[in-house]
Each structure stands twice: as C-alpha cells, then as structure tokens.
Amino acid sequence: MSRSQVSTQPADGCTQCLLSAAVEEALPGCPCPPVLPLSPLHRVGPSLLGGQGMFAIQPIKQGDLILSERALLIAPAEMRYTTEGVEKLKGAKKMRGILRGAEKQLETLLRRMDREDQTKYLSLANVHKKDGSGPLLGILRTNGYCIDGLREPGVDGFAGAYSGVFNELSRVNHICCPNSTRRFHMPSFSMRLYAIRDIAEGEEITTNYTGTWESTVARQEKLSPYCFTCSCSCCSNCKASDRRRARLQAQFNPRRLSMRLNKWAHTDTSGITNEEMTTEVEEGLRLYAEEGLESHNLYPTFLLHVCSVLNAMGIDFSKYGLILLRLWIVRGMDLGKMFAIFQMLVVPLYRLRYLPDLD
C-alpha cells in the first residue's frame, strides 16, 4: 500500500489516502474543486436517532445537491494490511497482527493531517472498541462509506473496495426509507449528497446503510454492530413492509416490466388490458411511496416504465418524466443518453395502441 494525498486548495478539503499503486495510478491528476450548493442547506447537531445527525436548515427540493465533501481519509474497506512477520502467524495471533498493522498505517495517515482534520476524525463515533480494532481503525469501520469507482484490480466484492471517512457526511444517520442518496464524483474526488425527495426545513437528512430488499430482521442484524435499532416507519410495521418489498422485487423488476410492456404495447393478442397496465403502474407507485424507496437504483427504471405506459395510452407523462430526469441527473447519467431515451418515448411506436383505425 502507498500513502498519498489528494488536494487542490485547502478550502476544498484534503484527503489522506492509503491506496495500492495500481489504484493510485488511476486517480485524476488534478481534481477539480467540489461543486457546492449556492447557499448552505444543512447543519449538524444532536439527533433523536442517536449521536449527531444532519438537518435541513431550509426546504430542499428533490434532486438538489445538499453537500459535496472530500473525505478526511480513504483506505481499504477490508483489512489488506501487511506487516513483517504477520503472514507466518495463524488464527487469533494473525488477526491481532493484522489489526496492529492497520492501526499503524492509519496512524501515519493521521499524522499527515493538519490539527483541525485530526480533531474532526477523532471526534467521530467508534463502535468497535471491544473487537481488537485500534481507535483509528474503529472509527474507519464505524463511519466509512464505500467509494464508488475505487476498486482493487482483480479483487471482487467487498474485499476489493475502498472506504472513505468524512467530517459531515459520516454523521448522516440511517433509516430504511431515506430521503437522500450519495454518489462519489471522481473528477472532484468528493462525495455528493442529493435529496431524493423533498425535505422540509428542520427535517433530519438520512441515508441507508443496508441492503434494500433484505427483510427487516436481516437489516436489523446488519445494523446491530452500530449499537442501533432502526425504528423507522418500515421497521415499525415490519410484516407489511416485508410484504411490500418482496412484491416490489418480484413483480416490478426491470426484466418483467420490459417483457410486459413490449407484449402489451405491440401485440393485439397479448391478453393484457389497458386497465391491468394502469392498475400495475398505480400499485408500483404506491408501493415505492409507502416504502420510501425513491433512493433505490431501480426506481428510475420503474419511472421509465410508468412514462412508457402512459405515453402509449396517450396520457401526459410529464409529471413522472420530470422526476425521472432529476433522478438521472442525481445519478450522473450521460446527457446524451437521457435525450435519446426521451426521444424514444415520444416516437409513434409507443403510441400504436391509440393510433386511429385507418380501415
């Protein structure tokens, strides 16, 4: 592992990195400055969910950028640290050696931070005080977000991922129906936090730490290391929530929706009525809203299905088209691709069901 520093101007934030040579070579040579909101939209303060949290200080619209922040520190998500002699050890001794090696390398990164960033890092929560992790590694494991786009070549899954710890973003709390989503922006080497639906002034800004389609029990098990029990509206009514999420996964997956749309829109003998399609669209919109899953990466795909169905029936789809456009922008979709998809939506092929009978 090599230690590097990514920075442009001090005001933009300085990230201390523990990266392999292969990953470091792929980094942007001179990152552009992070893009910030025109005016501050958030504050950090005590949260009813526990510890510190992030709150809106004015109304925030769906799709708005809430915060763009460089990490204090980026390091391997899984402990790929080596120190002399550790590989010869076995079992618990080897694990203790790996943990000590990790702590020493993180100590080096901490020493490279200025005093202010050191204070910020050390003030973050640590729920790994009793598992052998040192204090710096404990903070990393408690507060780290996966950094999209940074991966160890040839290493699959979590083992090849990198994790970033942030001064403010790492204080955003979890609920299973979050009102924000995050995306790492490689050109500026910063994490961007966006509102995924409208957020009221004073409302806590939340994110998701767990898998979306997992059952309530499975999500709670993943949250248990954080010494936190989620009591959001989904977890409070777990049986109904689990049924809704299972139905979304089974009935509203992209493959099934695409097959039904093509069969219905282009085949007179499909046996699928207009009423069935509109009922299905209404049910999907209701399930996503009840579960608060606008942050899920399949939600835009479902909205595209909604727009396609409405357009094929000659119904104005602009309401959902604008939401879809905002979500695509949040996710960094190429503008040319967005334009091409909307062009496809309005060609006559998608309105065959309502073309006049020429006979």
Q: Main traits of this protein?
A:
single chain; 359 residues; alpha+beta; five-stranded mixed beta sheet; four-stranded mixed beta sheet; 12 strands; 39% helix; globular; disordered N terminus; disordered C terminus
Span between termini: 73 Å
What's the average pLDDT?
A: 86
Return Rg in Å.
Answer: 23 Å
Main sheet record = 5 strands, mixed
* Tally of helical runs: 12
Order of helices and strands: EEHEEEEHHHEEEEEEHHHHHHHH
Number of strands: 12
Question: Strand order within the widest sheet?
Answer: 1-2-6-8-7
Helix content: 25-40%
Tertiary shape: globular
Which stretches are low in confidence, meaning pLDDT under 50 for 5 or more residues running?
2-9, 354-359
Secondary-structure-based class equals: alpha+beta
User: Beta fraction of the residues?
Assistant: 15-25%
Describe this structure in words.
The protein is built from twelve helices and twelve strands. Mean pLDDT is 86; it is low at 2-9 and 354-359. It is α+β, with helices and mostly antiparallel strands and 359 residues long. A hairpin with a 5-residue loop joins β3 and β4 (52-56).
Can you lay out the helices and strands and say which pair or pack?
Layout: E1 2-6, E2 15-19, H1 21-25, E3 42-46, E4 52-56, E5 65-69, E6 73-76, H2 91-112, H3 115-122, H4 135-143, E7 145-151, E8 161-165, E9 173-174, E10 180-185, E11 190-195, E12 204-207, H5 216-223, H6 233-236, H7 238-251, H8 254-266, H9 274-291, H10 299-312, H11 318-330, H12 335-346
Parallel strand pairs: 2-6, 9-12
Antiparallel strand pairs: 1-2, 3-4, 4-12, 5-11, 6-8, 7-8, 10-11
Helix pairs in contact: 7-9, 8-10, 9-10, 10-11
